[in-house]
Amino acid sequence: MADRDQGAQRASVVPKDRASARISRALRHGALLAAVAMLSAVVGSPVFAAAAPSAAQASSTSHPKAVIIVGPTGAKTNMFRGIGDIVAQQASAAGMRVTKIYEPDATWDRVVQATKGANLVVYLGHGNGWPSPYAPFQESTKDGLGLNYPARNQRSINDTDYYGGDRIRNQMRLAPNAIVLIYMSCYAAGNGEPGPNLVPRDPKVAVERVDNFASAFLDKRVGAAVVFAYRTEQIMDIPQAFMTPGKTMLSIFKHQTSPPSNPHWYNEYTGLDDIWFDSVRHPGTRGLLDHNTLPGEGYSRAITGRLDMTTDQWLGGGGSSTDTTPPVLTGFAASSSGSAVASGASAPVAFSPNGDGIDETVSLDHQLSEESALSFTVTGDPATPGDPPPVVRTFDDYADAGAGASAWDGRDQNGDIVPDGIYHVTVVATDDAGNLNAPQTVDVQVLSLLAAPTWDRTAIDPNAGEPSTASADFGVGLSQDATVDLSIEDAQGHVVRTVSSDVASTAGPITMSWDGRDDTGAPVPDGAYFADVVASDDSGTVHYQSRVWVGPFQMTLDTATPSRGHVVTYDVVATDPLGTPPRLTFKWAGGAHFGPWVMARVGHGRHYRAKVSLTGGRAGPLQVTVSGTDTVGEAVSQTESFSLR
């Protein structure tokens, strides 16, 4: 209990004892489903749904590594995910090894890891290029990728973190002769942004945009040989074209299957008003822009780099391998990011993905013998026993050798939080040579009964003369009918006030007001207290604690072991507004008093600070008293004890 003061909120998710029989039945059934889930992960997942190779493919031992990246693009994110899935299925059917890095998990670190040694990188997302209306030109954020922010609480489909050409040159390392495909991004194919700036008035601007956007990927440190850029969806099966021997990159770019009379002809090469250019950013390479046939659309396709590179050269650039040893993945297990406690030895780890920021994800821990792409498939229990388990979510990660962890956020393929229940998470590891390990499965439990426990105040002082701070209101959301216990505990875990005990409650908000008094009506001592709420239904139990301070001051010392002769900093936050700054007084071991020192206000609120030199006195107990007068003339004070060395 010593750490209860360290955080404002604590949570645990506990499968309930009375539900253990139901859980045991589900787990016994889950043992049968695990075998089905493994088969689904290998056969049913788009990442591994590889068709039989063609005769041309069969003559090569190469299985190129393809990485599909989908960044946050607002309302278009789901559309981009769908296009990414199509490309991933095409690549897998053509014999490639596919890793998908999708929003909300498309962070820079994951992209850098996943693209190590990649032969094909496909990016769908926002483009931030140059020339554009957003001066000045720099490549910290321009001419690169628009991804998710690193912090999970900053990630959404509407928030884009741009990683420009400089970051790509410094950190991204692809396979030799890699191909990069920029799909449906502004600026990459010469176009601007939708609206009046979509088509540049000067074709030279379109050329400059294409040359700039391709530049970082073509850097010799990064490794790409050619960059394709398409502003619109293409008819051609591009991955299959890359796997066809004897083709040049230019011939693939100029591929045509539909006559001009086809209404979708503009979704492939037109050959109208083409612009050839010699790259300024990479002398010795060339580029080609292709014009769209739709009115007002401008240039929508571009290719830059070694246009004469053949598919055979691409396949020899790092795709072949004599390695036939699959990666070894061990220790696959789930762990909760909060305080999840199982009720029995066979109960799965539980977590609470309800959007309140507490215990939102489950960690999927593992040990790997070599760096590998990880493909995860989350399945639920079928509605009818014996049916294939429904796939709830698929996602990918890339991990180094050794200990590592991925995470599931409890959301389905559409980004919605899944219903409470037990889910089965299966992982398959694929190394850079295309070898797969045997699928492994772990069960997890989603419990999201409670959400967002909050106090309307962080501190109260029932003994002061200010009515507005004499009590605080606590609230928490109940997502469905449950049995609820609600109490106030002190920092040692002792119940000082019982609000409700084993009360059947309906879904909705649960609120209470606390005046800083115990069950007898007496004021509690100054210190930290916790609203302790426990909700239980047939699925399990969720336990949250939320902290509130009782007393006129919250005092913080900048060191846990103050020593004589040292200067220490005392920070004080007053519960009530003060009429004058508070004062510090010290009482040393042996009874000597020193002070008072007047504290200085920090900012314009109720925060005060003093730096004091601990000269003189004896080692041992040191009492520090903070005293003052609130705005209604009421005297307030509080004493804390420290051990002085």
3D architecture notes:
- This protein has 645 residues and is mostly beta strands.
- Helix content is 14%, strand content 37%.
- It contains nine helices and 35 strands.
- The chain has an eight-stranded mixed β-sheet with strand order 3-2-4-7-8-11-10-9, sandwiched between helices. Strands 1, 21, 23, 24, 26 and 27 form a six-stranded mixed β-sheet that branches. Strands 13-19-18-15-16 form a five-stranded mixed β-sheet.
- Strand 10 (286-291) and strand 11 form a beta hairpin.
- Helix 5 (165-171) packs parallel to helix 6.
- Mean pLDDT is 83; it is low at 1-7 and 14-61.
Largest sheet: 8 strands, mixed
**Strand tally, please?**
35
User: What would the principal axes of the Cα set say about the shape?
Assistant: elongated
Query: What is the mean predicted local confidence, pLDDT?
Result: 83
| SS-based class | mainly beta
Q: Which stretches are poorly predicted, pLDDT < 50 over at least 5 residues?
A: 1-7, 14-61
Helix content: 10-25%
Q: State the strand order across the main sheet.
A: 3-2-4-7-8-11-10-9
Strand content: 35-45%
- SS summary, helix count: 9
